[in-house]
Amino acid sequence: xxxxxxxQRIAPLExxxxxxxxxxxxxxxxxxxxxxxxxLFRTLNVHAELASRMRPLGAGIxxxxxxxxARLREIVIHRTCALTGAxxxxxxxxxxxxxxxxxxxxxLYSTVHGSARDECWDAEQASVFALAEQLHRTSTIxxxxxxxxxERFDQRQLLELIVTAGWYHVIGYVCNGAGVQxxxxxxxLPEAGPARxxx
Length: 199
What we know:
This protein folds into 2 domains: 11-65, no CATH class; 68-199, AhpD-like (Up-down Bundle), CATH 1.20.1290. It has 9 helices and no strands. The chain has helices at residues 19-28, 39-44, 48-62, 70-83, 87-98, 105-113, 123-138, 143-152, 155-178. Helix 7 (123-138) crosses helix 8 and helix 7 packs across helix 9. The two termini are 25 Å apart. The mean pLDDT is 94.
């Protein structure tokens, strides 16, 4: 796994915020959130125009109108973050979404140290895990996997899965390149060790 810098390279915005900054940051957070905006969001908003262009896509991928079920989406996100070494974003998603969609310890471990062949994944889950792997390693999807995916997902879902993997490469690059520091509440990456039992 690539290593991310241990020091902050671009300082995130800090309170007190000017009103327009507070309003922009609030749009990035879930409705009704009473916690400080994430360091990633505060870093992106150093470039407010860029952040405003990015937010709709990120919100759409995670939103209720998404075509891909949340559990499958999170497999792609967790695996992509692990492959890019984005400890920050993997930890945020593991804490904020992973348990919420029902990931077991074995599944969380697999997204970092495992493969699509691990027993903790069913066939549908394994196919999106493999999609994240192939796109990361080859920037494409081979014909065998494409046929498998096309049997399980419609074209809208296939496009969304591909874009999700690409979007979290962007987020991984931002986290690693800017040196976004970990959130105190985020999950730590599991340490490599003996294979975990299936759920």
